[in-house]
Amino acid sequence: MSTQEPEFETASSENFVNLVRNKIPNEETIYDLAELFKVFGDSTRTKILSCLEVKDLYVGEIAEILNMSISAVSHQLRVLRNAKLVRGTKEGKEVKYALDDNHVMMIIECGLSHLKENDEHEE
């Protein structure tokens, strides 16, 4: 839980509403954020990201690890590339995939930490 900032404690109802409105992201940013989280909503894509968190891999390697077809993995990698979550580097005739940056790993780790926290509360 977050603690309230002093400016909220003394604000009138109208001022309170305006203060909150001014602190939330704009509509376009909210939309983009929702679209980003939709990408994580597919378990296959999340598995691919988890693989790439361990090591940069070729499409064929990901397909073998996940017991999937190369075309299915390629399709999901295209979605992940469009979302700027992975990047590909051409090496000869093949492309090696990696997480685009450390933020992707942080998102995954935060999600896993949240799940672990929820599991601990349920025990």
Description:
A hairpin with a 2-residue loop joins strand 2 (86-91) and strand 3 (94-99). The longest helix has 21 residues, at 102-122. This protein has 123 residues and is mostly helical. It has a three-stranded antiparallel β-sheet with strand order 1-3-2. It is built from seven helices and three strands. The chain is elongated.
Which terms summarize this structure?
7 helices, three-stranded antiparallel beta sheet, 123 residues, elongated, mainly alpha
List the helices and strands and how they pair.
Blueprint: H1 6-9, H2 13-23, H3 27-40, H4 43-54, E1 57-58, H5 59-66, H6 70-82, E2 86-91, E3 94-99, H7 102-122
Antiparallel strand pairs: 1-3, 2-3
Helix pairs in contact: 5-6
